[in-house]
Amino acid sequence: MQRVLVTGGAGFIGSHLTDLLLEHGYSVRILDNLSPQVHPDRQRPGYLTSHAQLVVGDVRDPEAVEHALKDVDMVVHLAAAVGVGQSMYEITSYCDTNDLGTAVLLQALSRNPVQRLVCASSMSVYGEGSARRPEGTVVSPPERSLAQLRRAAWDLTDADGAPLVPVPTAETKPPALNSVYALNKYNQERLCLIVGQAYTIPTVALRFFNVYGPRQALSNPYTGVLAIFAARLLHQRPPFVFEDGHQRRDFVHVSDVARACLLGLTTPQAAGQVFNIASGQSRTILSIATDLAVLMGCGQISPHVVGKYRAGDIRHCFADIDRARSVLGFSPAVEFRQGLEELSGWLADQVAVDNVEAATAELQSRGLVA
Ligand SMILES: NC(=O)c1ccc[n+]([C@@H]2O[C@H](COP(=O)([O-])OP(=O)(O)OC[C@H]3O[C@@H](n4cnc5c(N)ncnc54)[C@H](O)[C@@H]3O)[C@@H](O)[C@H]2O)c1
Q1: What is the predicted pLDDT for the residue at 313?
Q2: pTM, to two decimals
């Protein structure tokens, strides 16, 4: 039986991946430090199957990593501090967990190479998604200027002020790193691919888009927009929607992401490549806030459109998933409506701590929301 080490496996995506790996006959070991932002009680989460071995330890700790890697055949590296806004003021801690943590893991793997490494990257590496100019050329839009954002002119334009229409973003778009988290995720994927190649560890980097589904930490106000909206709605409070709510994202169900990780472990021709993992469809943030409220039985609560922007935020990004389809054989199976219904069913039994106002105030006090 092959053994897979899943770093960060006690978290949202990792726990679903663990279930899937066990179903497919793998043995699973998890290395996770039960970070308090995700696991406020610092206990093994109730949703985590007892069939997986949990090693409570930190990816930054060389001894813990060495111990966790013993007799392991493959690694999925998911452990990370996750959150664009928070990364802009907890800079040391984000670089420490995400950059140093990955370096420590790779240092250990350079001594004991495994058969395969899959690393979780993120859509955040793209910055603004690709867009089309009026005459049809597809471009990589620059970051919006502060002056533009202060005027609440949210939409992207080209240098002449002509509107840019968002189009699906492919892996070929050059990265545009505009938050500490985005830089961390790009570092993680490059580090894994570089070291993987040098030590003949077939390595795959998966750029997840907005992942949603049951088990996402409702206590964490920095990541998972649907979970953040749900935490507000569970308290009968309106979700905060930044800008005008018409920014577009790509929501992918966690079970599809778990399947993509398994494909990353098992598809020989994927080695050395990066893949977008997404639904390939786009939705506005305002529409998903409204849809979730209706499904949770709070349709009378309208989202609060705050008309402000957050440092590091982008206007639109949704994925072109052709490469994942053709190389990995990846095909998203969960339709958004069906996934949202399942999520609201799960939410009905959840108790959430609503930390959203405190988190927004924290960003505001640092000038990161304006
Ligand atoms: N959820 C998304 O929408 C999304 C999108 C793009 C990329 N990703 C990436 O996917 C991965 C998993 O994300 P998730 O949504 O499951 O997050 P999560 O916060 O639910 O899980 C992360 C897990 O990592 C653990 N962890 C944090 N720091 C650690 C450390 N120093 N040592 C050991 N464990 C540590 C946490 O305790 C947690 O259990 C991350 O790398 C994230 O950057 C997630």
Answers
A1: 85
A2: 0.96
